[in-house]
Structure formats: C-alpha cells, structure tokens
Amino acid sequence: VSDCEVGLQAEIAFRMSSEKEKVAVNILVDHFGDIVAKVVTLLLAKGPRNMRDLAMETKLKINEVRKGLLVGVQHGLVAMEERKGSGGVKTTVYTATIQRVLQRQHIPQFMELAKKTFSSQPLAAERVMEELVLNGRLSLGAVLENARAHPTTASTNTDHTSAMTMEAFSEFARRHLICRTDGAASELHNVPRIDPSSVGASNRKRAHSPDLEAPSAKRSTNGNGATSSAIGTDSGTVSEGDILWRPDYKRLYQHLRNEAIFDMVVELFDAAAGNVVKTLLLLGELKEEVKESTAPITSFELFQAMPVDPVLSREELTLYLKLLADGPNAFISKVGDNAGGTYCVRILPCTRSCAIDCTPFLFVRLLISFCFNSFIAMLSLGVWHRMVRSVAVTTALLWYCVTV
Fold this sequence. Notes:
Elements: H1 3-32, H2 34-46, E1 49-50, H3 51-58, H4 62-74, E2 78-84, E3 90-96, H5 98-102, H6 107-117, H7 122-135, E4 138-139, H8 140-149, H9 158-174, E5 178-180, E6 219-221, E7 227-229, E8 244-247, H10 249-268, H11 271-284, E9 297-298, H12 299-305, H13 314-324, E10 332-336, E11 342-345, H14 347-381, H15 384-403
Antiparallel strand pairs: 1-3, 2-3, 4-8, 5-8, 6-7, 9-11, 10-11
C-alpha cells in the first residue's frame, strides 16, 4: 500500500470520526441539555477523568458535574471505576463511549420494534419501552406505576392497564429485549412475580444511580429519620419488584438487523423466502452467534416453527432452502446433514447486502455538508493544495459507495 493510499484512508477515518462526534454532541444537547453535554463530551474527547478534573476543565461547579455524571451513569453513557492514584490513594474515574451516545438516535426504531414484538397490545408495549429508554433504568414497580399515570391510560381501568403492562414487560424479558442492570447471567431476564395491583405510590421505586464518589457509603433516610444503606442493608434487602431493568441495546440492534434482512429477502425473492429466513433468525435469536452466522437449526425444527399462513410443504421448504443457499453470496448455508439438513443464516453477506442499499445515501448526505463547507472555506483562504486533497477524499468516498 502506497503512502498516498495510507494517507487517504487516514483522512477518510478522521472525517468520519469527526462527523460522529458532531452527531453525538447534538444528541447530548437535545436529550439532556448543556451540562450533561459538556461533561460527556469532555470524557469522549479526553478520556478518563475524575470529578475534580472534570470541574476544572469544563469550568462547571462541582454539583453541576455531579448531576451531569449522575445522568450519564443513569442512562449508561458514563462508566466509572476505582483506580489507585499517587500514594496508593483510590480515586473514582469516569469514562464515556461514543457508541452509547449514538445509539439514542435509534429510539424511534426501538419504539416501533416494541409495538411489533407485542402486537396484541401495542400501546402497552410502547409505554414499557418508552419508560426504560427515556429513564435509562427503572424498576418493574416504577414502570407499572408510570403506565397507570400515563395520559393515554389515566381514565381507563388501572388493573387492566397494569396487567397489560406486566404482560408486555414479561414478553420483552422473554425475548431478551430488556435485562436487569446486574446479577448472574442466568437471572438477567427473569421477571419477578409481583401483583400489579399492589404497586402504588408508597411502593414507588425510581431509578437508583450509584453514588459517584463512594458507592459503599450511600445512605438513605427511613421513616423514623434513621439512616440505612440504600441497597442490601442490615434492615432489609431490595425486593424483587425494586430490581432495576434497562433496555438490552445489543438485542435491540440484533432485532433491527433481522428486520432489515427480512425486508431485503422479501424484496429480492418473495414473502415465502422471507418467512424462511425470518423463522431461522427467530429460532436462533436466543442462541449465541458463531463466526458471523446464526446458530444452526435443523430443517425439521424450521418446518415445525414456520408460520401457518402461508403454508409451505416439506418439499417447498427444501426448494427454498436450496435457493437461498445457492451461490457465493448466499444468505444461508448448509452446515450439516442431520434431521434433513442443518442451516444457519450468514450474517455478514446479509448485512453487507443491506448496507449497499443505504450506504450511498448516508455518504452523499455527509459529503454534501462536508464538501460545501470545506470548499467555501478553502476557496476564501486560497489553500489550493487542501482543495485538491479534499477532492481526492470525495472521489474515494464516492468510489467506495459504488463498488463495496
């Protein structure tokens, strides 16, 4: 690879990372305001910092920095860990990742996905996902109470509303779209058994944000004015209804990806082929993906799980499997001969085919804003060599859109 190509690749990577940073800043300001945006943006730009350094570099008051970090931790934008500083003194430092910020731009898609997942009661499903996405983390009791107080259900039967909300919540946990904020891996999706009608204002449990300076020393005041630990104290432990839940963004993105693959297969083939691929994805969604493919599923399992309408015979299903597995860029592959054949969906070719349809529009949108602004600025300054380099970057990006 020549030095020119290496420099061009570095320029493209720099431009794309700068665009991500601009989008992230806009999301932070729109969703959380200026204080949170300043704190998280500085963590994104300069890496791990403690609270005192954040206050000095952002020129914010220490209480404002604390509130900004609380919101960041609450929504999973900021992570914290204890490190040993000079002299062996422990200090809490905070970090932020840009991916956690950018995922918030897909909140509307998550809402639509929730309604599709629980289509029998789309309003209840939307309320559950809305509460968890907008609040970051909530207990089941808080979700049920907020659903009762929602403007769309305030005048309806509260017991019926709570029952529907509980059913939608359980369905999301079963599909692994939501999970507990902590606990053993085997218990992350276990929904506690509580009576929805027993949840009231006295049992309300809002999202708990860890103490930013000393998590083990956090205290709360009980009704008698005495202090006790917030979680796991001698006076009692957190009840099942007060366990905090959050959206499982990895699974949400997996569902969005599966929806895009299904739509693409329907467009390229027909609805029956789309149902074959969709059923393979559904059967393998709770199993671990191996080497960019879904978990292998036998044709017998696939036939048993296929939708009733339209009905496919075993022979028709075999023909569709052969059709979808044909060619170097096949969407599925046959990985065994047990039980009539074992098949899996090849994620990489599918997502790559989906990306070909949408990538040009994304790049053209970025190129229009970048090229127009940079061209005018460089023209006014007379920096001709920078203009030539900008044209080269633009040409490379357009070539990438067409040929990938």
